[in-house]
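Throughout this review, each integer encodes one residue's backbone shape. One record appears below.

===
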Amino acid sequence: MIHMLAAALNDPDAWLRVAARLHPVVVHFPIALLLTAAGVELWRIARRGVTPATTALTCCGLAVPAAAAAAVAGWLHADLESHAKTLGPAMELHRWVAIGASVAALIAWWLGLIARTPANLRARRWWVFVLFVSAGGMGASGHLGGSMVWGDGYILKPLFGAAPAKEAVPRPMRLAPAGTILTVRYADQISPIFERRCVECHNASKLKGGLRLDLLAAAFDVEQDLWAILPGDPDGSELVARIAPDAGNKERMPPKGERLTAEEISLIRTWIQEGAWEGTEGQTPPAESPSTSPSPRAATPQGPDEVRATAAWSEAEQAAIAAVRAAGGRAEPVALGDERLDINLSVGAPTDETLAAMHAVEGRIAQLNLAGSRVSESAVLGLISNCVALRVLDVSRTSCGDATAAAAAKLPVLERANFFGCSLTDEGLRGLARLKWIGVAATGVTPAAADQLRAKGVRVETGSER
């Protein structure tokens, strides 16, 4: 505690931030005082009083310094907190309406003091008028501030429901160059995490922290130095810092409920490291936005005629694609016009028989995702041993281990492998030294073994990088 206090004393900005963050607390006092003053004075008028009510005048006088303190704290908060800069016109309107109401409160109090002389009816009329303007302005400013935090119509939404959706403005998707190999797919793996844990507070109507995650392109609509997601730099991304499970991180997200799992954090880190893309050029974009699209498990996979319309598919290859489809999985081209396949069985319920049926297309598979499936390691070995075009393999949370790693090490073009939650050990890891990226979080791999591969230029994700 003494160490923390000493560090704070050496950092004046820390005290300024503390003062700035008192704004949400202090701001309620001038609002309550001015509304009380207006209500009391209205009752005084109804009782035909000829001088300002003493209670109203006192409340107005107390509201002046309270409003000044709230204004100073609010101004500091907007300047010191980076997310405030992303609120743009809404923040400016909130700020200047509050300042105007504060000045009006000071004028009203001065007029009220003059109007205490019964004969000064003119000052009395101006006192009432300016007091009501001040109270109304302060209430409006408070409403604007609440809307920035909770979204428009938050108070009445339970009575009338959500406002009708506005027609969406098309935004360009963030697509990687054609042929780019992506280990993590935004639509299947990242968007569902955002939908479950983030979109409630980061959407078009509730732009908390100035960040919107219901539409990925909107997260990059602000100035680049304010991006919460820095493509290619997970360690420098504010989003990653907020979801990290560090015990000392008091601003981690989501603020309520269970934290993101180690696997979810690892997926987001890898997705950002690969460029935070929504897909690759040439692929058919999803028909619906992430906020309205059905669950990945309910999606209908593509058949062979849709996967590669210009390719000559044999009956055996068609049967292989049908097996993927029957298991609830997906099969897509890596890029438009590419005969290599991206097969994702993490969204279905594949069996060993499913993998056995895929041997007909094993030479075409460039990306294979078996994450979370209950297939046996022997079935995986039987399939991948001849996947000569395989560049990306995901067997996270499966029964795979060192035997799979040994088979993967022999694949000529394999670049990335994810063994998260598997029984991989140091021995299996050593054989993968020529890969570019390996996920080994929640495995038997030791930090020393991971560091040995890192020294050779391999990116090894252990889940403890932050």
